[in-house]
Design goal:
- The chain has 476 residues and is of the alpha+beta class.
- It has two domains: 6-23 and 432-467; 31-426, no CATH class.
- Helices cover 16% and strands 33% of the residues.
- It is built from seven helices and 23 strands.
- It has helices at 6-27, 108-113, 187-191, 195-198, 292-295, 423-426, 436-467, and strands at residues 34-39, 43-45, 50-55, 65-76, 87-100, 119-121, 137-139, 154-158, 168-180, 237-249, 255-263, 286-289, 303-311, 316-324, 329-336, 349-354, 356-358, 371-374, 376-377, 385-386, 391-399, 404-408, 410-416.
- The strands form five sheets. Strands 1, 2, 4, 8, 10, 11, 14, 19, 20 and 23 form a ten-stranded mixed sheet that branches. Strands 3, 5, 6, 7 and 9 form a five-stranded antiparallel sheet that branches. It has a four-stranded antiparallel sheet with strand order 13-21-15-16, with no helix packed on it.
- Helix 1 runs antiparallel to helix 7 (436-467).
- Bound molecules: 2-acetamido-2-deoxy-beta-D-glucopyranose (3 copies).
- Residues 115, 117 line the site of one 2-acetamido-2-deoxy-beta-D-glucopyranose.
- Residues 1-25 form the signal peptide.
- This is Stress up-regulated Nod 19 protein.
- The chain crosses the membrane at residues 436-459.
Length: 476
């Protein structure tokens, strides 16, 4: 009788319970981060040439997983990073799709031939329409110094067998748009796809461009050629996009995030009758910046500020945000419209901002004149909540010191439906991996309190049992 103490059973139970979320989320034994490094198919560029390729069924981690980061850079055949002033990386994007098993798509031409019923797009959650900006990940020149890490316990869930249509397979398309500017007469002009430098008057499909279209994606399509200095020669070289994917296996502790991309050129307008919020999003992707020479130095300090407001068709907690800008960009932000301001954007409440970092030297990752990184925002989970239907304001700034064609203003955000359970109380502490020690100490404290409580409980029962003839106190 004396040796039997149910209190210890309770204690073990509590410790086991405590150790579950603890070891899972922070010890990482059960769910460690996997890393894989892949190469895109090779592409070959000579001075002034452009490759805008769509590679289907590229290497990608398999299984039901949660993506934690996706980083990329252009390398040469020997594996050395190539600087932007030689090969300008206009963009790379990664898009998911589903294809009927047995049907093979390896290039864009295959996709055009494939039976519509054999292909299903598997893009992100919005908000542009018609498959525009439907990527899971995508960056440009800023790729080397932009964080894509998704903080614990969040991840982008992919490969969920329950979501793959039956008879289909989940695959990934990688689009790489690179411009070789070695020897270019006007490097910036080539990277901004100025039509005159490419001697392009028709688009890729032979349709004449509108006379006011001076530059942008329609003038630097695959296999176009930008103007090179007379007599300049250099070897064509073989390049790859090297991409590094990190992920963890999906389980019930991982909270999925949804991907949304806002575009500053979205012409969405609130209409009195618009009940379907997702209705008229027209994303044009690119726009031009007039130089202040042309318009005179106004009171805008020679900065072009573009703002739009959007009623968001989703809600949730903001987990991560990053913008994409081209050279000349000076910053971007997402604000929430304040209830008491009537259209006065200046007083919107800042939710997330993303600012460009320019390089200062020559070496890859630090090329002068290029945006080599964008700052990101990681609000503490739970601190920035978006309500469905609320009005957000998107803002993009560009310098007007010179004219720019084909610039972009994209804002990529990750949004979660849920907050992690332990974070409801430890929200401010459990933020990054750096906080592991704090969390460890906290859990140790909690465990200790538990031990003390259980011992107290056990002692209490012991007394109680003795007081009640050692019977039925526990009620087991
Ligand atoms: C496409 O697939 C559907 C369903 O399998 C079939 O009925 C149709 O004939 C196919 N179309 C072509 C052009 O092959
Ligand atoms: C530009 O294009 C036109 C028409 O396609 C062609 O006649 C002309 O030779 C081209 N100029 C250069 C410099 O390539
Ligand atoms: C954009 O420019 C405007 C006007 O100069 C300024 O008030 C605003 O703070 C800038 N926003 C960002 C995100 O840089």
């Amino acid at each position: 009788m004396a040796s039997y103490n149910p209190g210890w059973l309770v204690l073990v139970g509590i410790l086991v319970t405590l150790s579950l979320p603890y070891s899972h989320a922070f010890w990482g034994n059960e769910n460690k981060i996997h890393t894989a490094v892949f190469l895109s198919p090779k592409f070959v560029l000579g001075p002034g040439s452009v490759e805008n390729r769509f590679y289907f069924n590229v290497d990608f981690p398999k299984g039901h997983i949660a993506l934690k980061s996706f980083d990329a850079e252009v390398i040469d055949e020997t594996g050395n990073p190539v600087p932007l002033h030689e090969t300008y990386l206009h963009h790379w994007v990664v898009v998911r799709y589903y294809v009927r098993k047995g049907v093979e798509i390896s290039k864009l031409d295959d996709l055009k031939k494939v039976n519509r019923s054999d292909y299903i797009s598997g893009g992100n959650s919005g908000i542009c329409q018609n498959g525009i900006l439907s990527q899971f990940f995508g960056l440009g020149s800023e790729t080397r110094k932009t964080s894509t890490h998704i903080p614990d316990p969040y991840g982008i869930e992919v490969g969920n067998p329950a979501e793959v249509p039956s008879g289909f397979e989940e695959q990934w398309m990688l689009n790489v748009h690179a411009i070789d500017t070695r020897g270019a007469e006007d490097k910036l002009g080539c990277t901004e796809c100025r039509c005159d430098l490419y001697n392009v008057t028709d688009d890729e499909y032979g349709r004449p461009l509108r006379p006011y279209y001076k530059g942008g994606l329609l003038c630097c399509y695959d296999r176009t050629q930008c103007k090179v200095k007379h007599g300049f020669e250099a070897v064509r070289r073989t390049l790859y996009l090297r991409y590094t994917v990190k992920w963890i296996d999906m389980d019930r502790f991982v909270l999925p995030v949804k991907i949304y991309i806002f575009d500053i050129t979205d012409s969405w307008k609130r209409t009195p009758s618009s009940t379907e919020i997702n209705a008229e999003h027209k994303c044009k992707i690119e726009y031009d910046i007039e130089s202040c020479d042309a318009t005179g130095l106004g009171n805008d300090g020679c900065i072009d500020t573009k703002r739009i407001s959007l009623d968001v068709p989703f809600g949730g907690y903001l987990i991560y945000g990053v913008a994409h800008q081209h050279s000349g960009g000076t910053g971007s932000a997402l604000y929430r419209e304040c209830l008491f301001d009537f259209g006065d954007f200046e007083d919107g409440q800042l939710m997330c901002s993303s600012l460009p970092t320019y390089g200062k030297g020559e070496e890859p990752g630090n090329e002068a004149g290029y945006i080599v990184g964008m700052t990101t925002c990681y609000p503490k989970p739970g601190t920035v909540e978006i309500s469905e239907g609320e009005t957000l304001i998107l803002e993009f700034n560009y310098s007007r010191i010179r004219h720019h064609t084909g610039v972009m203003g994209l804002f990529y955000i990750l949004v979660a439906d849920d907050l992690p359970k332990p974070m409801h109380t430890l929200r401010t502490v459990v933020q990054t991996q750096d906080s592991i020690m704090v969390v460890t100490v906290l859990w140790a404290a909690v465990a200790l309190i538990g031990v003390v409580a259980v011992i107290a409980l056990a002692v209490h029962y012991q007394f109680k049992r003795e007081g009640e003839d050692g019977y039925e106190a526990i009620g087991m």
